[in-house]
Design a protein that fits this description.
The protein is built from 2 helices and 17 strands. It is mainly beta. It folds into 2 domains: about 60 residues, OB fold (Dihydrolipoamide Acetyltransferase, E2P) (Beta Barrel); about 110 residues, Immunoglobulin-like. It has a 5-stranded mixed beta sheet, with no helix packed on it. It has a 5-stranded antiparallel beta sheet with strand order 7-12-15-14-13, with no helix packed on it. Strands 6-9-10-17 form a 4-stranded antiparallel beta sheet, with no helix packed on it. The radius of gyration is 28 Å and the shape is rod-shaped.
């Protein structure tokens, strides 16, 4: 038994409406632009990247999103034509002072800030604090290690006091090493030696 014509028309209209709704939810040109959070999985040599939530899709990034790193939680946006854009990382953990790892034999000086780093949105970072050790300090000694996010792409140097009346250079290396060396004269073998990080008020990351 066939349905009356009006009922058939209603069923057809309902089916077409459902199909249009499904297409609309999956087609950017229909639903318009949108944005979402994503986690960076690959950083390509040309500065583009891929995210875990959309494997295989190459995403360009804004110029303000500097030094992208695998693991960054970022905001991505898709245009109505289907193109993706990485707007930048979220700031949940990137704006606070975070302690750095000191090498064995070094300790924070309680009268000063604890050695720490802070990242900025303009592609720079800052260090602060004072650490010390007692005894013989050899030029080139690694006194601390920077985390990946705070490491410069090239070496960064700053003059600093390394003992009372003695001066040298603190160097930040791309592998994260923070060394003390290039002393102006031979250091005494006794007494405190310092890792002075306030000299790095701002330094370039990339």
């Amino acid at each position: 038994m066939t349905k009356p014509a009006p009922a058939v028309h209603r069923d057809l209209a309902w089916a077409l409406k459902q199909q249009a709704a499904r297409v609309g939810t999956t087609t950017p040109a229909v639903r318009g632009a949108d944005w979402r959070l994503a986690t960076v999985s690959i950083v390509n040599s040309d500065g583009t990247l891929e995210v875990q939530e959309a494997p295989g899709i190459t995403i360009r990034r804004l110029a303000s999103y500097t030094t992208p790193l695998v693991g960054d939680v970022i905001v991505i946006s898709q245009s109505s034509s289907g193109n993706w854009l990485a707007c930048g990382r979220t700031a949940a953990s990137g704006t606070a002072w975070t302690p750095i790892t000191l090498a064995s034999g070094w300790a924070p000086n309680a009268s000063y800030y604890t050695p720490a780093y802070r990242l900025w949105g303009d592609g720079t970072a800052s260090l602060c604090g004072l650490a010390f050790m007692t005894g013989t300090l050899t030029s080139g000694t690694v006194a601390a290690t920077l985390p990946a996010a705070a490491r410069p792409a090239s070496q960064v140097r700053a003059a600093a006091q390394v003992a009372t009346g003695y001066f040298g250079v603190v160097t930040l290396f791309p592998n994260g090493d923070v060394t003390v060396g290039d002393f102006n004269t031979t250091l005494p073998t006794t007494g405190p030696k310092y890792l002075e990080l306030d000299a790095f008020g701002h330094y370039r990351l990339a």
